[in-house]
Design brief:
Elements: E1 7-10, H1 12-22, E2 26-32, H2 38-49, E3 53-57, H3 59-67, E4 83-87, H4 95-104, E5 110-115, H5 120-133, E6 137-141, H6 150-156, E7 165-168, H7 171-180, E8 184-188, E9 205-210, H8 218-223, E10 226-228, H9 241-258
Parallel strand pairs: 2-3, 5-6, 5-9, 6-7, 8-9, 8-10
Antiparallel strand pairs: 1-4, 2-4
Helix pairs in contact: 1-2, 5-6, 5-9
Length: about 260
Amino acid sequence: MSELSLEYVYGINAVAEMIKHNARSIEQVYLQSGRDDQRLAAIIGAAQQAKIAIVTVSKPELLALLASSNSRDEDEVPNHQGVVASCRPSQAQDESFLDALVRRNDSPLLLLILDGVTDPHNLGACLRSADAAGAHAVVIPKDNAVGLTPVVRKVASGAAETTPLVVVKNLARAIKNLQAAGVWVMGAAGEAEQSLFQLDLTVNAALVMGAEGVGLRRLTRERCDSLFSIPISGAVESLNVSVAAGVSLFEALRQRQSAPRPSS
């Protein structure tokens, strides 16, 4: 495979999780020479166990490797932490995966749907919150949204390898299919009278967050079963989408952990 067709995942947590969960996609691991770090030593051990080639390079060579790729934001100096993995591009999941997930899931489903989030840092942070809150998947539209880029992986800090990212061609249709399968779809909207804390999130639920500064698109909003707002008592009028997603997901986790368990 040519160098141009590879992705470069960087940062200790991102590379460690890639080795742990998707080692087969890794071509090589590049380590910065002269670094004596216990966490890097753990990565070396994991890479050796997975039979992944390890190459030691200088810091300028590591930066040049990232600069020549599309694995970073424009004008960003990547915080690579002394380790970079060259990987075959990973594929996100599709609608068939989502359908199977809904059918086979025994416990109440928890999904995060992002309506047109274009900032890779926000998507990465949403994946990290989704993983921490036990969400089963994050769903995004194919168009007008950021995908599973190396920057997303870096910000997600390993969550991109454990929480499925599902890309759908038509978000409104995907929502309709979820509803037909018994999933309650609840959209975040600042003007909604119903509070997040009034929702029953112990059921099969999909929480929908709108794009940065725009919110939910009209068609997405109309497809939701209900709308909710997050109470704010300070001077700010709204929350960043990744913060709003985190608050909402952890309210779902709180409710589910507090709910009475069925007697055996």
